[in-house]
Design goal:
Shape: elongated
Distance between the termini: 54 Å
CATH class: Mainly Alpha
Order of helices and strands: HHHHHHHHHHH
Largest sheet: none
Helix content: over 70%
Radius of gyration: 19 Å
Number of strands: 0
């Protein structure tokens, strides 16, 4: 952790108040430069992402998707966007429009989306059908490179069966990709395991 100048801390804490109330318009320049900073996570947490408005979350996702590499974007999705979308669905039983658009925007970094949002959701073991249907609807409406989808199908097929995971699997298979044999084998074994359960 870097020792931060008090003026920097003060500035980002004041930006936090803007982000809590933000609806539309320009964001402060100091916020837009966060992805370019070496200690971007430390600075980001001064703004308390869990308190941002939904519109702020969408704008932040746009900025971070454009300016971070896949690995850093994955951290942003996993630590900031992922918990927020789960909380929102749990509280309101649907996803706020701005958060829906933020998830859609996160697909511009497909590897980061799968590793930062989709797979953690599948691995959590407590993903609700409502969460699965909402996130799957975003997947269904957008094109995703085959290799990223194939890797996700492989991972999900190797997990234990549950309703939410099968929704994601179905959505990705419905895209009718020409899949590598290894992925097809994993999907076949996944479904064959049901016959053994009988």
């Amino acid at each position: 952790m870097q020792q931060l100048d008090e003026r920097v801390v003060g500035m980002y804490k004041s930006i936090r108040q803007i982000l809590q109330k933000y609806r539309s318009g320009k964001l402060p320049k100091a916020f837009k430069v966060i992805p370019n900073l070496q200690n971007w996570e430390q600075i980001l947490y001064l703004t308390e992402p869990e308190t941002w408005s939904a519109a702020s979350m969408y704008q932040a996702t746009r900025i971070f998707v454009s300016n971070l590499n896949a690995k850093m974007a994955q951290r942003f999705f996993n630590l900031v966007l992922f918990p927020r979308i789960r909380d929102d669905i749990a509280e309101f039983r649907r996803l706020n429009f701005h958060l829906y658009m933020a998830v859609k925007k996160s697909l511009f970094k497909p590897a980061a989306f799968f590793k930062g949002i989709l797979l953690p959701l599948c691995e959590s073991g407590n993903c609700t059908l409502r969460e699965a249907v909402i996130v799957a609807s975003i997947l269904a409406k957008n094109s995703i490179p085959m290799l990223h989808s194939a890797a996700a199908i492989l991972k999900i097929a190797e997990m234990d069966y549950n309703g939410a995971n099968s929704i994601f699997l179905r959505t990705l298979l419905d895209k009718k990709y020409a899949l590598p044999f290894r992925v097809i084998d994993a999907v076949v074994f996944h479904f064959l395991s049901f016959t053994k359960d009988k």
